[in-house]
Amino acid sequence: MSVPVLEIERLNKSFQTPKTVVTALSGIDLKVQEGEFITVIGPSGCGKSTLLKIVAGLDLAYEGSVKLSDKEVAGPGIDKGFIFQEPRLFPWLTVEKNIAADLSLRNPEVRKKVDSLIELVKLQGFEKAYPRELSGGMAQRVAIARALLRNPKVLLLDEPFGALDAFTRAHMQEVLLDIWQHNRTTMIFVTHDIDEAIFLANRIVILKPRPGSIRGIVPVTLPYPRKKATTSFQSLRLKVLDEFERLEETEYVDRAGL
Amino acid sequence: MSIEQAELRLPPAAVPPAPPIGDTRTGSIQAIVKKPASGWKSIVIDTAIGAALPVLIVALWQWAAERGWTNPLFFPAPDVIADAFGSLISSGELFHHLGISVWRALIGFVVGGSVGLLLGLLSGLSRKAEYVLDPSLQMLRTVPHLAIAPLVLLWFGFGEQSKIVIIALGAFFPLYVNTFVAIRNVDNKLFDVAKVLAFGRAKLLFRLVLPAALPGILLGVRLSLALSWIGLVVAELIGSQSGVGFLINLGKQTSATEDIFVGVIIFAIVGKLVDSFVRLLERKLLHWRESFEG
């Protein structure tokens, strides 16, 4: 087995509120192999977005160790691509300039890569369009291309399709798998949609809240492309749901103990 | 291609909620649906609609003057004003004075506007600069800049300097305030993007802050130009041997009311032209932004 590209060890994170200290993440241990597709799923408030922000280097106030390619994460950088829930494009730039962002399209190398990425995210013909002319799914594809242009070691996606309608979301999941199979970029994808988590992942990391910690990791060995209507998919779905139900039960017990 | 088409064909309800700034796709859809008549025809029609009211008023005025209902000393007839216009143009006086006025307004605007832009950028970008500069400037802002015109005359005399200082004072504040506010209103979410993409300081300024603040800065430019023009009139009326303001003053002293009207009309025309120029600039620079067009 190869060296993990991302290594999280004994990660603890707490927020200081005026009254108390809230533990957001506790004892997170996770190793992600290069080229792996990880989905992180859990109920709201389990700290999945916080975890992603820490890996991105956007939040540095934590205990423990987060290493990318054996180097401690010291801040945000282009080696960690980040996709927000909204596309967050620059409204004054065309699609191709949004992808290039701070790089110049006059540089032939950038030009070539931007063109091939536009092809990869299937936006040919929209190079000169402005963000306001794009649908939500198209705009999110521009955001993905913008992150991929910088050859990130890992692409972090924070509920990227959460704001899209069901049809567009299903389509975007396929586009993302296409990209992944083409580029083999390591993906960490946060979602609260069980189907989405199973459809995409090599491994599903299930988080539980209060404090946010890993409840279990479910490997998904179904071959791609996956069909949501198959029995194997559905039995996996039940397995993940079962984890959640047990999670709820333990919560009841916890409360009973109080 | 089928992918884009499939997505584009989704019903309007499929549009995700809370899009980021600049996303006014519903607006663009409306614009496509009711495309106005294009080209010369629409320009002619729009101009005709806009001109109807002034033309009617001038016609009524002329008619009233010919019947002797108006006092020619207070309200010279439009044709008398037109004659004055003609003679001032043919003698070359009009363009001489207009040239001087435009030059003064331009210098005053450039001086005051650029200082306003610079300090606005400074206060907008740095909290420290804001704490140092903004309280004093906000206090000065509440003083009508024309109220200090006598002081300026006292300090700088009746020469060109005092006029340019008065104009510059007027041009300063709109650009300062609007630049400051525009920078502070830049979407914080885009700063997160800049962080993730590891923009350097220069890139952050030129690729994010300035383009995002440009609509507000251009609004400041427009207001600054308007105030420069007002400052110019005051500066030239107070004491001047040339310029359109002087022409008006001369008209008053020689009871040539029609010359006063000529000066006022010139101020109106140039003011309108300048405003149209900035609007054109806005349309060129902000074409990515689409807003409600009525």
Describe the structure in your own words.
The complex is a heterodimer of chains A (about 260) and B (about 290). Chain A is of the alpha/beta class. Chain A has helices spanning about 50-55, 95-100, 110-120, 135-150, 165-185, 195-200, 230-255, and strands at about 5-15, 20-35, 35-40, 65-70, 70, 80-85, 155-160, 185-190, 205-210, 215-220. In chain A, strands 6-7-8-3-9-10 form a 6-stranded mixed beta sheet, sandwiched between helices. The relative contact order of chain A is 0.17. With about 290 residues, chain B is mainly alpha-helical. Mean pLDDT of chain B is about 85; it is low at about 1-35. The relative contact order of chain B is 0.11. Chain B has helices at about 1-10, 25-35, 40-65, 80-90, 95-125, 125-140, 150-155, 160-185, 190-195, 200-240, 245-255, 255-285. Helices cover about 75% and strands about 0% of the residues of chain B. Chain B is globular and about 75 Å long. Classes of the chains: A alpha/beta (about 260), B mainly alpha (about 290). At the A-B interface, strand 6, helix 4 and helix 5 of A face helix 1, helix 2, helix 9 and helix 10 of B.
Label this structure with key terms:
heterodimer, A: 258 residues, alpha/beta, six-stranded mixed beta sheet, four-stranded antiparallel beta sheet, 7 helices, 10 strands, 36% helix, globular, B: 294 residues, mainly alpha, disordered N terminus
Strand tally of chain B, please? 0
Mean pLDDT of chain A: 89
Strand order of the largest sheet of chain A: 6-7-8-3-9-10
What structural category characterises the helix and strand content of chain A? alpha/beta
Q: Report the count of strand segments of chain A.
A: 10
As a percent range, the share of strand residues of chain A is 25-35%
Strand content of chain B: under 5%
Give the fraction of residues assigned to helices of chain B: over 70%
Principal-axis shape of chain B: globular
Number of helices of chain A: 7
